[in-house]
Amino acid sequence: MSFLWPQMLWMLPVLPACVLGYLWLMRRRKQALIYPSLAIVREAIGPRQGWRRFVPPALMLTALASGLIAIARPTAVVTLPSQFHTILLAIDVSLSMRATDVQPDRISAAQVAAKAFIEDHPPRSRIGIVSFGGSAQLVQKPTDNSEDLIAAIDRFQLQRGTATGSALVVALATLFPDDGIDVESVVFGRSGRSDAGRSASAPAPRAPVKPGSYSSGVIVLLSDGRRTTGPDPIEVARMAADRGVRVFTVGFGTVEGATIGFDGWSAYVRLDEETLKAVADMTRGEYYHAGTAADLKKVYEALNARFVMERGETEVTALFAGFAAILAIAAGLLSMIWFGRRA
Questions:
Q1: Is residue 302 part of a domain?
Q2: What does the pLDDT look like over 279-323, one tens digit per residue?
Q3: Are residues 53 and 92 in the same domain?
Q4: Could you give the CA distance from residue 213 to residue 221 in angstroms, rounded to a whole number?
Q5: Which of 7, 23, 126, 151 gets the most CB atoms within 10 Å of its CB?
Q6: What global pTM score does this model have?
Q7: Distance between CA atoms of 329 and 335, rounded to whole angstroms?
Q8: Measured between alpha carbons, how far is 47 from 152 in angstroms, rounded to an integer?
Q9: What is the pLDDT of residue 261?
C-alpha cells in the first residue's frame, strides 16, 4: 500500500499520546475515588467497570487511526471491473503472414483466433479493427456488432511491407478523434513522402498524462515481422504513452523465422520481439509471444479475461474513512448501552 499524501502521516504519533493520556486519566480517577463502604466498592468494580470500559476507547482509537490513514489518501493494487470501452485490434496483414510455420498459415490462424476473441469479447465494450501491411487502414470502426467485425476480418488482403508504426497512429486517431491527429503527416512526414526514418509527432499539442492512465480504450497490436516502412513504432508508442493509452503487443510466429515466396521471389522473415516488447513497456502494456495457433488463442483468452477484470492500483481512501466511521459509531453506541454515556 502507498499514499498520495504521505506527508499527512505525521499525525499518527498522536495515537500513542492519546493512549498515554487515557491511562493517566484512568489512574488519576482511580486515586481520586474515596469509597465509604464495601458495597460501593463492589458496585464500582463490578461488571460495569471490567473489560467493557476499555472497549469503546479502543474502538475510538482504532477509528482515529483509520481516519488519519484516510487523510493520507492510501492506494492499493486491487482487482476491479475493467473500464475499457474501446478495444482496437491492429492486425498484421503483410505478405510474411503467408508463412506456414504456423499451420495452416499465419494469416489463417490469426483470423480464426481474432474471430474467437470477438465472439467472446468483454461485455459493454466495442471493438475496432486496423489492418496493416505497407500501409494501415481502419477496416472496421469500433462496434459491438460481431457480424460486422468478423466480416471485416474475412476481407483481409495481404500487402507488401510492414508499417507497424502506421497501425499505431491509425489506432490512436480512432481513439482520440477530437485530437486532430494528422495521420498522413505522421506517416509520410511533413514533405508528404513516405519516410521511415522520421520521428512521429502529433500536430496538436496535448499535455502528457501518466502512461497507462487512460482507462477508456486500449490497443492490441499483433505482428509477425520487422517494420519495413512508415514511422518508427517506438516514436508512435511515445504518443500513446503521453495519452495514457496502453498497447498490448503480440508477437506471432516462430522466433527462428521463416522463408516465404511470392511471384518468383523469396524472403526471410523474422519476428521483431525487441520492438514489440519496447512498445508494450513504454505504454505500460504487456508483450505476449504466440508461436502456434493454439498459443495465439490462449493469448486472446488471457486478454479477454484481462479486459473484463483488471488488476491495478486504485485509491482506497473511502474504505478507511468508512471503516473509521463504523468504528466511531460502534464506540458511541456501546458506551451509551453499557454506561449510559458517550465514550
A1: no
A2: 999 999 999 999 888 999 999 988 887 776 556 667 778 888 888
A3: no
A4: 19
A5: 126
A6: 0.66
A7: 10
A8: 78
A9: 58
